[in-house]
Structures are given as C-alpha cells and as structure tokens.
Write a sequence for this structure.
C-alpha cells in the first residue's frame, strides 16, 4: 500500500528556515498537499498542488515535489508556526496522510 | 464563508454503530466541484482518511474501513453523514468532516472543528 513518511520532529530557531520532508514511492508523480494543525485545533490547508498557497497563508510557506520526496519549507519561521504538519496525497481514490511532523520553534 | 460542523453522540458502546452528521453552511453541498469527506484522528496520533461522498451519492471509502463504513448525503438539508458499525475502543478518535476540492488533484479545505467520539461501555 502507498505510504507517506515524515520525520517525527523538526526544530528551528526564530527567523530561520524549516524544511519538512515527506517521502513516498514515486511521490513526485502525484500532487502533494500540506496541512498545519495547532494543538486543539482542526487541520488547515497550507499548500496544495505541490506549490500553491491558499489565500490567507503567508508567503513564507512554500512547497516542492520531485522524485520520492515532497518538501514543505517555512522561511523566516515565527513562533506562531509551531504546530504539527501533515503531508497528503491520493492513491486510488483514497487520501493518504503522512505520519506527521512536530515543528518546534526554539 | 463555507463552514462545516460535526454533530452526534460523544459516547458509543462497543459493538454498536457510530453515527455523525456534518452540516454545511455558507455554500451548497450540491456543487459539482466538490466531494465531502470524513477523517479521524485518535488521541495523540495522526490523521486517517475514512471516505467521501458526492452530492449524487457516489462514494469512495478507505479500504481498511470499507466493510464497516457508510457515508451518505442529504442535499435537502445540506448535510452528509457517517455511519461506522461494530465499533471498538480503537475507533475512539476526533472525527472531522471536510470539503474535498476536485481539481487536477484534490485537497481538503476547509475542515470542521471536529468532534470527539469515545467508544466505551
């Protein structure tokens, strides 16, 4: 079955760049989406179709997808970006979510 | 602005059927551009796709849950529903509903606030 693997945690200093990877077999042949989930809240879409940002999502969020890896990059990370992040792709009509990455801003 | 709201019992007994409804406001559930989906998240764990429904009633289910899941739509009430049968403690989770935008690929936006369902006697 199709699976997506993310690192459990990423630490970043304020103002620096955080990169979150999402690995899956030939993931680059599919589109990837990314969701941010803050504690006690529901997930929010931050990237869709690999690189597109919904309205209201800051420009510091960007995405890429090639080969077996999709990457979410947060440039100039702020304390408010501390959250869990999930990648997602589709496999035969089923949404598959990544294992999730906790981003800590320290 | 489109909003989704989950509702239903917060406690279900083992072996019984979990039933939840998602009410859509600020837009029509009958749009041809969207599916309507259910996702769940066990406490402290990641997200799991359950399935989705089109306004016509066609459905897609997660193969791992397909034998126990039914998702239906009521366009007259602008609602869609989830039924999960023969529940166990492993089905304890926050259940979210979300709009599935259909395009070159699909994405989930927005999500409801979620509702915690506990399976316990």
């Amino acid at each position: 079955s199709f699976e997506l693997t993310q690192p459990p945690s990423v630490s970043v200093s304020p103002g620096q760049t955080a990169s979150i990877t999402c690995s899956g077999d030939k993931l680059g042949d599919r589109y990837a989406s990314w969701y941010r989930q803050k504690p006690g809240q529901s997930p929010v879409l931050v990237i869709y179709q690999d690189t597109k940002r919904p309205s209201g999502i800051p420009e510091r969020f960007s995405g890429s997808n090639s080969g077996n890896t999709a990457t979410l990059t947060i440039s100039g990370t702020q304390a408010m970006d501390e959250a869990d992040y999930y990648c997602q792709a589709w496999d035969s009509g089923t949404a598959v979510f990544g294992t999730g990455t906790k981003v800590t801003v320290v | 602005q489109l909003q989704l709201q989950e509702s239903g019992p917060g406690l279900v007994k083992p072996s019984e059927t979990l039933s939840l409804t998602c009410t859509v406001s600020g837009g029509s559930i009958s749009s041809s551009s969207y599916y309507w989906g259910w996702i769940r998240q066990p406490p402290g764990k990641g997200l799991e796709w359950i399935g989705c429904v089109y306004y016509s009633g066609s459905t897609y289910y997660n193969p791992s849950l397909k034998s126990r899941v039914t998702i239906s739509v009521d366009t007259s009430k602008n609602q869609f529903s989830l039924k999960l049968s023969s529940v166990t403690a492993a089905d304890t989770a926050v259940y979210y509903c979300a709009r599935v935008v259909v395009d070159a690929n699909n994405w989930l936006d927005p999500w409801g606030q979620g509702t915690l369902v506990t399976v316990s006697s």
User: Anything to note?
Assistant: The interface with chain B takes residues 30-31, 33, 35, 42-45, 48-49, 54, 86, 88, 90, 93-100 of chain A (CB under 8 Å).
